[in-house]
Fold this protein.
Amino acid sequence: MVAEGINVLILSDREVGAERVAIPSLLAVAAVHHHLVREGTRLRCGLVIESGEPRETHHMATLIGYGAAAINPYLMLESLTDLRQAGMLGELSQAEAEDNVVKAIGKGLLKVLSKMGISTVQSYCGAQIFEAVGLEPELVARHFTGTASRIGGVGLDVLAREALERHARGYPRPDSDLLPVGGLYQWRRDGERRMWDPETIALLQHSVRPNGNGDGDVSQQTYDRFAHLVDEENARAGMLRGLLRLREDVRPVPLDEVQPATEIVKRFSTGGMSLGALSPEAHETLAVAMNRLGGRSNTGEGGEDEARYGDERRSAIKQVASGRFGVTINYLANADQLQIKIAQGAKPGEGGQLPGHKVDRYIARLRHSTPGVGLISPPPHHDIYSIEDLKQLIYDLRCGNPRARVSVKLVAEVGVGTVAAGVAKANADHVTIAGHDGGTGASPQSSIQSAGVPWEIGLAETQQTLLANDLRSRIIVEVDGQMRTGRDVVVAALLGADEFGFSTAPLIATGCIMMRVCHLNTCPVGIASQDPELRRRFAGTPEHVVNYLMLVAEHTRRLMAGLGVRTMEELIGRADLLEAEAAIEHWKAGGVDLTNVLTMPEVEPGAPRRRTEPPPRVLDDALDWDLIAAARPALERGEKVGLQREVHNVHRAVGGILSHEIARRHGSAGLPEGTIEVEFHGSAGQSFGAWLASGVTFTLRGEANDYTGKGLSGGVLTVLPPDGHPYLAEENVIVGNTVLYGATGGRAFFRGLAGERFAVRNSDAWAVVEGCGDHGCEYMTGGRVIVLGRTGRNFAAGMSGGIAYVLDEDEGFEGRCNLELVGFDEISADDERELRGLIAEHAQRTGSPVAERILSRWSEYLPRFVKVMPHDYKRALAELAQEAAGIAGEGEPALRE
Amino acid sequence: MGEIGGFLRIHRVGFDKRDPRERVRDYKQYFHTQSEEELARQGGRCMDCGVPFCHEGCPLGNPIPDWNDLVYRGDWRRAVEVAHSTNNFPEFTGLICPAPCESACVLDINDDPVTIEQIELGIAERGWANGWIVPEPPATRTGRSVAVVGSGPAGMAVADELNRMGHSVTVFERDEGVGGLMRFGVPDAKLEKWIIDRRARLLEDEGVTFLCDVDVGRDVSAAELRERFDAVVLAIGSRVHRELEVPGRDLEGVHFAMDYLYQRNRAVAREEGRPWRAAEREITAAGKHVVVVGGGDTGMDCISNSLREGAADVKMLDVYPELPSSGRPENTPWPLPPKRTLTTYALDEGGERTWNSEVTALEGDGDGRVARAHGRRVEGTSSRDLRAVPGSEFALPAQLVLIAIGFSHPDHDGPVRDLGLDLDARGNVRAPVYATSRPGVFACGDARVGQSLVVTAIAEGRKCARPGRRPLERLARLLARGRAAVLRALAQGLGDDVNDDPVDDQPQAPEGDDQTDGDGEGARGEHRREA
């Protein structure tokens, strides 16, 4: 038809009927798309799909991704009529309901596009940025040509059978109009099989609690029943590891010769679930348990209360995610491991989102944000756009804490091995490969259901790539994603994991019952809620977690004994002890081919299959060692120290290690302002003044690179041109891109222009700059930014807190500002004092003629300042003020809805 | 999904019981039903859990969160439909279920559970009152016939299900009315009998034939049924009493509780003009000192009936220790039904319960009539570790002694022997996937699993009617036979259970939950959840 000049093809399943079964819409679209591509006529026509099937974001995303230019999801829209008639849509009209659902799908698609780094639907259409898990190679080659598919799987015959089965539910018309229970989003007895069901949850909880029978074996027996269900039924039906078998033709060793459980648990950690997502009680329970075991808990992306440092409530792993919430120098200094979260297995590409009703005053304080204001972590780290950037952040974090291991958390997806090799070359100590099976109720449903791949695939690829490139020995590989039993641990170790992360299961041990309302703040067991009433209901204890992980470790030992292996060191990487399960009964499992998972590259005999040595030392040539030596009187006795140093662009993260030394000794309070004053001359390398602590003042005469003032933590940073510069400083760039990213305190003054993303995710630093590039103050949640010149486009995008004052001399600022979340406000008398004070300090520290001019003609300039005020921030401040005035003194706290 | 955070604002409101002094003078339902508004408010407490443990805790797998939400939003009609999607008789379970769903409710962890049973009853009653529950006979008949022996909840459920599939079902009942122990054991105070009649009439209008006063094994042989029908389902309950083995058991005035309850229920039937049978030997509590042995629901019903007859006093001897009345014992953690002592409607009305007491002998008055019960205190928590306390002997006046210590297994005479069926280790009919050792003969309910709950019996009846073979498996077979077979099946209706033949179906693997334990001694478990 296309050859005959038809230029729009509409694929439709409207004619489905008693004797006509619908072809799955995605198969139809992809098959036609690839056929036309092969014919060379694809560009001559548009492809439209009209189908009753698509109804979720993922359906739309895949249809577009495989070439559909337009979708008519008619049954989805007609279902709204039914819902309306059933009274489930309240007062909504049909048109409003349709608008809402189309808008929701659109937003979902935008999120999918954005996390893949694609800006327009035209670019996404036909881009097929997917990995198939469980499709046979012939099918993929013919209809999904070019899609990664690594484990084989079902072919057209199985798809046909499924289509017929679906058809059978509707023809002939069943007696009842009730739809099948589904169970995809909530467990139902006859519905979809899920990772957790009432039986597994209850058994796990019972196995870790005293049972009243005075019989220690009961816990063991209960755990054994749990593990049996998980390993033999649940995993067999829904997980790749269920298709693997531990070899039995090996000589076992006596159990008592196997490494004790207390050693094994040291390789366990809990996942990055933030305080904010979790209640303080739940978060601390995990930390205490892991510290008692000698394992590690993870702060997640939300900072940590400093009151917990120094006791057993401290989390050993401090996460550094794209939002940089609460990432202060003191936070870094109090870590055993710093984890750069690139992505999460359950929702690859997405950042965390904490809805405003969970941000109470405590959470806001820890995150340096505003109570009641929702917090959204951006999909990317703004300081990582390449593997070199990642290497820089690893370096910066090493400076922030030279004693801590630096880890990078990746997700299992095709290509993860290459990224992991890059991480190893970037000198990280540790890499985490996260699989898709996990995900608490804090992950979007569409991501839990449709994003990510099993860790088995990603871990095997990582191990293979690291071995092939002789990098395996210098990096610790951790795996996480629905680890539940000793068998999971053993399979992971055999595929190459040194360490193991657990998230959902330890929460279940403390009482989580998989409500899936983590985002609603109504968790009835007080785990994922900040509501004081619900927090009181939290009944979990560290013993629950300790008991559970010890049971897992004991289970691990028993399996190790069966494999004839005495220590974890001997176990790691022995993929030869795994084989594909021959006796898979499930009708859809037949085509699965695990060769790619089980085949390890040939390496020299005796080559390490696990981490055996630390990564190369990178801090030895840092400028900071000299600064620290010279500043010893200040560090030790608080004496004032003034220094002068040359700086060159090979000096990166200058001030980071010095700040670490201050935080280590003096906590977040640091030293009194001005205790250590360093005047630099020259051109500073990246991340100049990173994590700069209170008490340190850096003044640089020259220029600085990208990431200046990253994570500024209370210090004062000034950059001004060298004396006698022949150009107009206010017209020239003096600091690079992404300056003050994630700053949590301190002040910064830049005599000149900054690059793009100035003060991105700033949460409490106050800064003055004389102009900036695009996306200034993006995602800012607190602090003050004064721009004494022209800004770039998209200023204040995603800004939810803090205030920016922009001198709008050409009256064009409104067009350059993103007004989605912010408005322009009157400048009050208090504001004026604040503004004038900062400009005066800028003038004093930099001698800026721009500042001098403004100050000298203040009444003339003041009206030209625009005050950029986030709507949420304004509301929250008003509520706080009201509360302070005692109006909200009784009843509900003002910041609760 | 109910009201977000509703459980934090709305408290559980249980049902109102009538004044015990008033209700002990009649045989009417002992509590008031709740208003529509209150039920809707209570439905709003449901949290629509990601993993609804209530749904798992219910032997029927009732879609409880779904109907809670419908009730909260006032869509009673759809709620009636949803309730019937998993439960043939929601009005029975709404009245006489110990509600394992409620003890499994996530709110029971640290709050009061949703009033699921009240809501279920409310749904069922609105369905009847509004004429939404009407006969829906099957559109087509398969031409196959099934005999169901026994018309208790399991027999009624299996009959209902098989009839819906288009089979012709005849239910044989040896007593004069349909319902089994629901009619003859459970007092009207808990389940007024017109409620059973109403449902039985509906089943008849849909085509089920009930033959009462026909005792299979005596009036007609089971072998004959096997001849005349394509399949026979035994739903004969677990009716062999556990015996009280003490001296004096033979004295006049010592009876099994169920014999007494049968008579009391027949007395009410007689008063209300329903069919009844006269007793050979009348058992009455009027004016007597009554001793009830056994502390379960049957014993409780003996107390309530004795009080209604005007007994001088009623003493209940329970061999087990008193348990806490609230909270969760460590050995029955959530979501298991907690072992705890609840006050019951009967004890509100009078009577007295003694814990840790067992009967050692019954003493006559010289004329062969019982006069005193001798007993002693015991220590221990389970039947395995009970020990007598030396020197704790006591005696009670006793003119009527009612033995309510449970049932051990189904009657091995009658159809079980006639058909030569295999038994399991506990004496129940062996029928791993509802098929007995005799082809074409099936068993379900207490006869198969031992004494259990009404809700379990209904679930048994449902599963017996459609064991195993799912449309998916059928489809796989069709596909193996090729394209023509698939197209033919499509034209006929694929996966339609009407064409699935339960009679010839011999599924292979036993289902996991099919061998549930019987309840504890004397606990018939028909007692409505209170408080």
